[in-house]
Amino acid sequence: MDGMSGAAPKAKRGRAAAADAQLALDVTVAPRAAPVFIAPAGARAIEDESFPFEVLSDIAEAESWRKEIHRPIHYVHKWWARRLGTVFRAIVAGTLAPSGKDVMQMLYEPTRFPGAVVLDPFMGSGVTLGEALKLGARAIGRDINPVAYFLVRNALARHDRAAVKAAFEHLEREVAPQIRHYYRARLPDGREGETLYYFWVKQLPCPSCGNSVDLFSSRVFSQNAYPKKVPRAQATCPGCGEVNEVRYDAAEATCHDCGECFNPQSGPASGQRACCPSCSHKFSIAKAVRDRGEPPSHRLYAKLVLTPENEKVYLRPDALDFALYAEAEAALAARRDPYPLAEIAPGYNTDQALGYNYKFWHQFFNSRQLLCLSLLADGIRAIADAATRELMACLFSGALEFNNMFTSFKGEGTGAVRHMFSHHILKPERVPLEANLWGTPASSGSFSGLFDSRILRALKYAEEPTEIRLAAPRAKAEKVGGLSDPIGFVPARNFTEFRDTGARLYLSCGNSAQTDIDDASVDVVVTDPPFFDNVHYSQLADFFHVWQRHILGGEGERTAPTTRASGEVQDEDGDKFAKKLGDVLTECRRVLRPDGLLAFSYHHSRDEGWSAVLEALMRAGFHITAAHPVKAEMSVAQPKALAKEPIDLDIILACRKNGRARPVWNEAGLWQAVEATAGLQVRRLVERGRKLSRNDVRVIVMAQALRRLSAAPSAEAALKHLVDGEAGAIIDRLHHLSAAGVPEVDLDV
């Protein structure tokens, strides 16, 4: 990796370089001889019952804890439901290699599938495409969302690392001093420090007396991520506002400044109600917000400052802080077109923000954040090289995620900023955090820090891709290099160019139910379709899209002011979801070769989710030949952590076109076959030490049901069996057995 230069803090550059160096120490270089495969006409490795999903799950588990390190090219920009690269490497290899081939062996050989064409019609963050390219295949990616297209184009593009570093260093010289000016702080001894974070609290007027009420649920605003080991915490005094050091669980404290006794665990807000400290009137927070007609106001109550000795100190705000904020407000008002003026449309993932009267995307930021983002946007817009300008806009989007008034403080001992998408809805924070946008050596979520952790790491990975390998279950992951060619491609502009020039990559933005791809020209389709009733990506992606249009212009895929489109497969109506997914799968059937495979990952906790997928597959003319459970996203993801019965598994479904190879429909032995196969898969996972929730078992059983039912003479006949209640009894039996230990399964498959 090139040496780094410029005016950035040396500690920051050194820390990032040291982290990369540590990662590099564990890399084993594989032999360069590359097994070469041509996609066979017969059965494929992914269709084998012995497909090693339980071993693959252990490796995926290790990857899931640090996905941004193990697959950094897919983390140059936020996307939702990013699947694990190890899993998709195995899926691509398993769909292209012949039956009987050892998939695990292929993962750690420089395996190549030259000339094979892999399509992902829901490319999202581009994981499928990245893995296909690393395996020597040609890749076609399409997504209806322009933010996804923007992400993947930048992630897989050919970047000049020297030009990227030079552009960052120019921003560091010209823009960083302007931003850092607004984060200056005065220390108690009169010296100057730099503010890492400002702590704010939302306020509402009391409906009875009109006084402002702070929406604190607790006066403790900072504690360690491991409080029992480090019990020290910070609390603000309700009387004078002074910052006090307390124990994290203290129920009583005395302010060292004014002497007031208070309970640090208590605040005016409790659940959905608040109590006015002035008149003791209790009121509904939601109603008070609605009556206000605009978003709640904010009050600055504390800051965390970095001293010249690189020590951190919590302080209450002083006159300089308020003066700097007022200066930022005035400077913002004087700027022309400083930020995008774009309305927020109603939707499942935006309604909570709208309920708090956030009607425009720029209202997610305070005035200082808007000013500093505007300065940074101007600097990026002025970069001459288009590829570098777009990559810096990707970095800007990362900074948006961590620098707004919907973020919160995670505490010490961990990454300090909890980004705005930790929940899948746009949830207003009652005690938001304002981070230093440019950042310091001790910052979290800053523009400079993300340049190190996202952009430079991604560029290094693109030059030298690695995989991870485990010597044994739960063992420390070992990084293996020398398996893949470098990543960096100029994508074809259309399919004709892709076909005629032999280009390795073709990307497009649009509805995947209609493409320009030739009939029977794709070897395999590998994808991860969206859920119909979960996260609506476009509703969240608009947060980034409006800023990308503001910086880069509204041409090409950014013509529309929103990423929402009528052709989106996601839909809260199950029938509409099945229809739109079926339309995309019908197009996949058209472009697939006669012996081509469709493989995708999926899970759902409700019958409707499985019924919709089965209906879409059958109406598109596919049947399922194999279904394998595999480790899904990180176990501690916020929505999963809050679930009573979290789903830790995805199902890989391998499908073929209906025709001569269509399996025989066996209605009489349907559920016996489902229980036998599902039981064996549960046993394999439990023997590997994996604990399964009831919903995990449900995913396995429902997938095996879909596999058998896809052979039914009609979708109507299949769906009738899916809802007859038989699956629930099987799920209960297998979950009971898996919870008790290794289930005994003696049924014939």
Automatic annotation (TrEMBL):
InterPro entries: DNA_methylase_N4/N6, DNA_methylase_N6_adenine_CS, SAM-dependent_MTases_sf. Belongs to the N(4)/N(6)-methyltransferase family. Its EC number is 2.1.1.72. Keywords: Methyltransferase, Transferase. This is site-specific DNA-methyltransferase (adenine-specific). Residues 111-146 form the DNA methylase N-4/N-6 domain. It is an enzyme of class 2 (transferase).
